[in-house]
Structures are given as C-alpha cells and as structure tokens.
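Ticket #4471: structure export looks truncated?
Reporter: QA, pipeline team
Priority: medium

Steps to reproduce: submit the single chain below to the structure queue and open the exported record.
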Amino acid sequence: MKILKKIFLSAAVIGAMASGTAQAADKIVLDGSTTVGPIAKAFAEHFTKATGVEVTVSESGSGNGAKSLINKTCDIADMSRPMKESEIAAAKTNGINPVAHIVALDGLSIVVHPSNRVKGLSKAQIRDIYSGKFTNWKEVGGPNAGIIVIQRESNSGTQDSFKELVMGETTIFNKAETQSSNGAIKSRVATTPGAIGFVGLGFVDHSIKAILVDGIKSEVKTVKNGTYPVHRPLFMYTNGEATGNVKKFIDLAKTPAGKRIITEIGFVNKY
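Actual output as written to the record:
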C-alpha cells in the first residue's frame, strides 16, 4: 500500500526560518520535487513517530526546492534532477554549499490511457510526438485518434529530466498541455484516451499504462541495472554535509525501514 499521507507546513516553521536557517533542534523543513515528495512525506511520518522531531514537507517543484535551500528557508531540498550550475553559483553567492544525497532511483515512465493499444515506443518516436511531428496515434501503430501531449511546468525537475533523457536538443512543441505535478499528469492521462505523459515510477498504477521504451519496461529491475532508457536518481540536497537530525533523516534511505518505505511507494532502492 502506497504511503501518501500529507504533512503540511505549519506557521511555526516561519518563525524558525527568520534566524536565517530553517532547522530548529526539533524540526526539519523540506521543499521541492513532487516526485520525491511521496518519499519525503513517508520518511517524515516514520521519522516523527520514531524521534518526536517535527518534519514538514512542501512540494513546490525541484526548482523551487533549490531556491528554498539557497534562500535558507528549508533544511533539505528535494530534487528529481541535479542542481544546475546557475543554482549552485547562486547558492555559493548566498553562503550555501549544496551537497547532493541520492535517496532513491526512478524510472521516468511514459504513460498512456489503458485503452490505447500501443504497447511501446522508441525514444525517437516519443521525441517526434513531443516535437509535434506525429499528431495521430495511427502514425505509431495506435488508433486513428489525435495525440494529446502532456508535459510538466518549466520549474519541474521531471520536465528537465525528460528534456535531457528523451528530447535532447529537440524542442517540445507549443501545443503541449502543461500539468503541475506527477499526480496531475496521472489524472489527466487516466481520463483522456488520446493522452501521453510522463511520471515517476512510483505514480504508475492500474489507472494508466506505462509503455515500453526501446522495448524495455520501466520496473525495479531495469531501473536498478540501468537498462531502462529513461532512468534517473532522486536527490535530497543539504547545505554542507548533513549533520544531526537532518543526517539521520536522509540516512533513512540506507536503513531497512527506509528501504521498505521506498519499495512500498513504488520507487527503487539505491542502497
């Protein structure tokens, strides 16, 4: 059973941030990726029960997670992509030393409506769909129906990963529809027979169909061994090397309890 309980940012956190650092002795603040969000929230629930430390999680996107770390308003930035050079430069200018911690692995799953008879596409075909070259499913072996292309917003780490791993130098065409989160893409594809989108592996269930990419299924085994073409690490960033409760929180990914949580949510253990 997936663990997706919401843990809301409390007003008390703002007071802790005022001193220039988010962390209080009994509080940890996270912000960032909607892909990493389910892991962060499940870790938070477990960690609070085990230690009594309050953990708050916000999901504003990887780019905003980086900004929160740079602006010293969170202790941990959840990111589904590495920090950009420009973000690292901005961090250093503000006295922040971003350190990356890989907490899990993910297969960026290409998803369609369950009724779509297309079982797989090559990366080249996916690129051609997202660039607008193919506009009807019949052009790639599917039904005679228009393709509704779904992407993420520009601040999304998942969007950046898709561009890097699938699009390369090719631009996504301007008729692509934008959704704000993995969950929003999942919902749109699940209710739209002509849609195609991309979500983290942990968001795939019976309501949508993950298709093969270059003949490879997105699953734990293929993500772990790197054979699935659209795989990526998931990060938690800290200011300098993690210490104290922040280190204990991130190190959950290496523990039996943390590994169980990651597996239950549907992502892939790195350790």
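Status: closed, not a bug. The export was complete when the record was re-opened. Leaving a note from the reviewer for reference: Residues 37-51 form the longest helix (15 residues).
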